[in-house]
Specification:
This protein is an alpha/beta fold. The protein folds into two domains: about 350 residues, TIM Barrel (Alpha-Beta Barrel), CATH 3.20.20; about 140 residues, Rossmann fold. It has 24 helices and 18 strands. The radius of gyration is 22 Å and the shape is globular. The two termini are about 40 Å apart.
């Protein structure tokens, strides 16, 4: 595996082979701690530039997810109910997923004389985007004393690395308050799209998170209801802590890895350590999505260059508002992190440092429509050793947006034996399974090549058209434009002008 990792720095073919190997091990429950150690050691041997190239290659479809997005925390115990709802409405309008800090929802509910679950339902009534819940334990929404809920983020502001809270006030919980609403536990998960667990207790951070046994209960319940599962771990020393955190996430069958650096990055070369954590996560993450919930500005930038998909941020007074994008001396409670993170991502893409697209509402809707077309048969469903869709698809499947959208065709309406497919991504994979033979054209030569290989490996008669849409049409009885982004689909349709060509929208 070490040689394969080294080759994957400069070869997409090797990156594809590497991911197929890892996915197979994960699915068969055969990935060992020794495998994780080997991967960490192999990446550690690379230069920072090589790590960035490796991570970028592994973010490329279909090894990973080549979208970059923001997840937004709208919650704070200091906010009114109206302010919370307004923050959620604005986030939904922008098309970003919402990260719910459940303790803050519970605090607001208590002031309003409501149950925590009632406030969550009020949020859901206003938004269509996926809902991610965090700070969630075996009794449901966690509860903390005021010195935590109104924390000014000293650890982030001061900057030196910490194992825990510099004021020794984490992780104090108001367990009796949590138990008052323990009957809501499963309903919270049923209503969510994804659920976060924190494994840093396994990394020696007992003062900073719930026990792993408690997180296992949450994880098991999330899987029971088909929800996406995210695992948060600290970079810590950049080696032993990294191995321990990733192993704990894999043991709990996590779909998305969430890397926390900033004061919890205690490595000597903290930027290389952050890049390494992202690249290693890219190799090992089951659902193909890697996020950060805590990263100084320089870590955000090196992370994006190394394959990062998601940066978690937030509104003023939400703790995620200062945890990403700011630096020591500026990272403090009250920051409006969202606008800063947007700027950082746009700058990195514009500079050519990120081989990914900044997700927008059209793409979110397209993924939702794709889910409806496939009747929800997406990740962790697989074809040719690769998942059909990724963790983004699974999260959006569990959103109001996906439930509300109507679609004219489903995968069940595809019946032709010889099919031309314009576009070589996930939708084409599913259609190819139903046909006798398929002819695929994609503007991205690598996407087309990878798709043909994956389908052939699955025993499907798929043939490349080298980006020639007309060839795909001419070789088939019927051809489909597989994108669900209307303006792109219509542009292709107008270009081809052939009665055999159909839209799926």
């Amino acid at each position: 595996m070490r040689d394969l990792i080294k080759e994957a720095v400069n070869s997409l073919d090797s990156a594809l082979e590497l991911r197929k190997l890892i996915i197979k091990k994960l699915n068969e429950k055969k990935l060992k701690e020794s495998d994780i150690v080997e991967i960490v050691d192999a990446v550690d041997d690379l230069s920072l530039e090589e790590i960035q190239k490796l991570g970028s290659n592994l973010r490329t479809f279909p090894m990973g997810c080549d979208l970059v997005e923001i997840a937004v925390g709208p919650c704070s115990s200091s906010l009114t109910l109206t302010q919370l709802i307004e923050n959620c409405i604005l986030t939904d309008f922008m098309g970003y997923p919402i990260h719910i800090c459940s303790y803050a929802v519970a605090d607001i509910a208590e002031r309003e004389g409501l149950k925590p679950i009632d406030v969550l339902k009020m949020i859901l009534n206003e938004v269509d985007v996926p809902i991610d819940i965090d700070h969630f334990g075996m009794y449901g929404a966690m509860r903390f004393p005021k010195e935590i809920t109104h924390c000014y983020g000293d650890c982030y502001f001061k900057g030196p690395p910490f194992k825990g809270c510099p004021r020794n006030r984490i992780h104090k919980r108001l367990i009796e308050k949590e138990k008052e609403h323990a009957d809501e536990f499963e309903e919270w998960i049923k209503l969510a799209s994804t659920v976060c667990i924190n494994v840093v207790e396994e990394q020696g951070g007992e003062e900073h998170a719930a026990s792993l046994e408690e997180m296992a209960i949450v994880a098991k319940t999330a899987k029971k209801y088909g929800k996406g599962l995210e695992g948060i771990f600290h970079i810590g020393d950049g080696y032993d802590d990294l191995i321990t955190g990733i192993k704990a996430c894999i043991d709990l069958d996590v779909d998305v890895f969430v890397v926390e650096g900033a004061p919890f990055n205690r490595a000597k070369d903290r930027l290389k350590a952050f890049a390494k954590a992202v690249a290693v996560s890219r190799i090992l993450v089951r659902g193909g999505v890697v996020a950060t919930n805590g990263a100084y500005e320089d870590e955000c930038r090196v992370g994006l260059r190394s394959g990062l998909n998601t940066i978690l941020t937030g509104f003023p007074l939400n703790h995620h508002g200062y945890m990403c994008g700011y630096s020591p001396g500026t990272a403090k409670r009250g920051n409006f992190g969202l606008r800063r993170v947007v700027r950082i991502i746009k700058e990195e893409i514009k500079a050519g440092n990120v081989n990914a697209t900044f997700i927008d509402k059209d793409m979110v809707k397209a993924i939702a429509l794709g889910n409806r077309f496939l009747k929800g048969n997406v990740y962790p469903y697989s074809i040719g050793g690769f998942y059909l869709g990724d963790a983004h698809w699974a999260a959006i499947k569990e959103s109001n947006l996906c439930r509300k959208l109507k679609i004219n065709k489903t995968i069940d309406d595809i019946s032709a034996e010889k099919v031309g497919l314009i576009g070589g991504r996930y939708i084409s994979w599913a259609i190819a399974e139903k046909a006798e033979e398929v002819y695929i054209s994609d503007t991205d030569s690598w996407v087309e090549k990878a798709t043909i290989k994956i389908l052939n490996d699955a025993g499907i008669n798929a043939y490349p058209c080298n980006g020639d849409d007309k060839k795909a049409v001419e070789s088939s009885e019927k051809a489909y434009i597989t994108t669900f982004i209307p303006n792109i689909a219509l542009r292709i349709l107008n270009k081809l002008r052939d009665d055999k060509v159909e839209l799926l929208i």
